[in-house]
Design a protein that fits this description.
Elements (H helix, E strand, L loop, with lengths): L10 H7 L14 E5 L11 E5 L2 E5 L11 E5 L4 E5 L11 E5 L2 E5 L11 E5 L4 E5 L11 E5 L2 E5 L10 E5 L4 E5 L11 E5 L2 E5 L2 E2 L2 E2 L3 E5 L4 E4 L23 E5 L2 E5 L10 E5 L4 E5 L11 E5 L2 E9 L2 E10 L9
Antiparallel strand pairs: 1-26, 2-3, 3-4, 4-5, 6-7, 7-8, 8-9, 10-11, 11-12, 12-13, 14-15, 15-18, 16-17, 18-19, 20-21, 21-22, 22-23, 24-25, 25-26
């Protein structure tokens, strides 16, 4: 799920793609985006975020000049940001984060010169950081990570080569184990979301092309299964309007469904798509109503989905919006 990743764009794309409350058309979709309390750190892109006990923890990233180490806690119930102990590793962007066993784990990324493979554990009760065993795969950035049942997982990314190797982290023993990789394309700048202890890996780029496959990881069976493509490739009508493929996007879950929004697909995109794992189909929702962006973060707390920060042309952003997927569109909130 992952404050994250970098791509160059020009100002006219911002003018074309930026979306505001006053101009968004919602006649064919449902859902409403509501602004929440702005992130209290500097605007940034390619940051990280992980959730634990209905609280989001995020930071790091790139502000356009410097890579960062600050770290923040977001309380969704009170719509409040609080600064926590800074990340002690090298300042970086395009890292990953996941939560497991009551802690948040942060690692990998890019420091402006080198790809990284170190990993760190954050204890929210003590507000302290501890270095754990390094990631045993190649140093990389633009990977994705997720947690299921107190285990952490990392896959994909870029180390000079596009990747899809898959690793499991056990926080009790501080050990990494390589698992069977997802099939299909290698990729970087992908997204992953978790529904009912199953992870869904989608989007991202490979050799200049956005990939169109979707893979489900079942932890109980320790198996990847390919789902329907996320572009219009079938002879049926269900995918005729699909415009889901992109890179450097975000994902989150609400009420047992997955959501993908923002990112880059031949230019910045604000479209938002809802995934139903029961039918393996996608439905368009109201487009993201903030400035079109990439390299943002998406997260879920209290069964509510958010998008925060990101990059639009040379601008680094600090706003946060919440999606209410079944709400009636309201132009004045």
């Amino acid at each position: 799920m992952r404050l994250r990743y970098s791509v160059l764009l020009v100002f006219n794309i911002l003018l074309i793609s930026a979306c505001t409350k006053s101009t968004t058309s919602t006649t064919a979709t449902t859902g409403n985006w509501v602004r929440r309390s702005e992130f209290e750190g500097v605007g940034r892109s390619e940051a990280i975020v992980a959730t634990l006990n209905d609280t989001a923890y995020g930071g790091l990233g790139f502000d356009g000049v410097n890579r960062l180490t600050d770290f923040w806690e977001y309380d969704g119930s009170n719509d409040f940001w609080k600064k926590k102990a800074s990340f002690p590793g090298v300042a970086r962007s395009s890292a990953v984060a996941f939560s497991a066993k009551g802690k948040v784990f942060v690692g990998l990324g890019y420091d402006g010169v080198n790809s990284l493979n170190d990993f760190w554990s954050y204890d929210p009760k003590k507000d302290t950081w501890t270095r754990v065993n390094d990631f045993p795969g190649s140093a990389r950035y633009d990977a994705v990570a997720f947690g299921i049942n107190d285990k952490g997982y990392v896959t994909s990314g870029y180390d000079g080569n596009y990747l899809k190797d898959f690793w499991e982290y056990d926080p009790i023993n501080d050990t990494w184990t390589q698992k069977v990789s997802p099939g299909g394309s290698k990729r970087s700048a992908a997204v992953v979301f978790v529904i009912n202890d199953k992870a869904y890996l989608a989007t991202g780029g490979n050799n200049g092309t956005n990939v169109n496959d979707l893979w489900e990881y079942d932890q109980a069976a320790d198996k990847w299964t390919e789902k329907r493509k996320i572009s219009n490739v079938s002879d049926e009508t269900y995918d005729d309007a699909y415009t889901i493929i992109r890179s450097n996007a975000v994902a989150f879950t609400i009420n047992g469904k997955g959501y993908i929004s923002t990112g880059n697909s031949a230019g910045l995109t604000s479209t938002c798509w809802e995934y139903d794992p029961g039918t393996d189909t996608w439905t368009a929702k109201t487009a993201f109503e903030g400035t079109a962006r990439e390299g943002a973060v998406g997260f879920t707390i209290n069964n509510r989905g958010y998008i925060a920060t990101g990059r639009s042309s040379g601008l680094r952003l600090d706003d946060i919006l919440e999606l209410q997927p079944e709400a009636t569109y309201n132009a004045n909130d």
